[in-house]
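Quick review question:
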């Protein structure tokens, strides 16, 4: 499986803008062939340990069954629409992809 984790830092991180980006994730990104897990949400303010990276406002987490599903997602119309409709609000985007195995 491929875990695709994306962390968005917004230009203007108001509660409304954060909620709008989470809603956009839910609108455009969960329903792709081969997705075995999907979630999106804002930074957990209660976790502020020294090791926590808090340099983001919204986290997106998608696990695909295989690389083919991941690759199809990347070029899908919904993924491209999500980017086009939201990229103006992004200050920084960090993507962390990894091969994972569940138990």
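Suggested answer, residue by residue:
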């Amino acid at each position: 499986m491929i875990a695709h984790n994306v962390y968005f830092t917004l230009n203007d991180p108001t509660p409304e803008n954060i909620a709008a980006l989470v809603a956009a994730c839910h609108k455009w990104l969960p329903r792709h062939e081969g997705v075995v897990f999907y979630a999106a949400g804002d930074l957990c303010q209660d976790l502020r340990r020294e090791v926590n990276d808090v340099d983001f406002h919204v986290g997106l987490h998608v696990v695909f069954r295989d690389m083919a599903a991941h690759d199809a997602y990347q070029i899908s119309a919904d993924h491209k629409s999500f980017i086009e409709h939201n990229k103006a609000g992004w200050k920084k985007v960090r993507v962390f992809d990894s091969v994972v195995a569940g138990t």
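Why it works: The longest helix spans residues 15-28. The chain has a mean pLDDT of 95.
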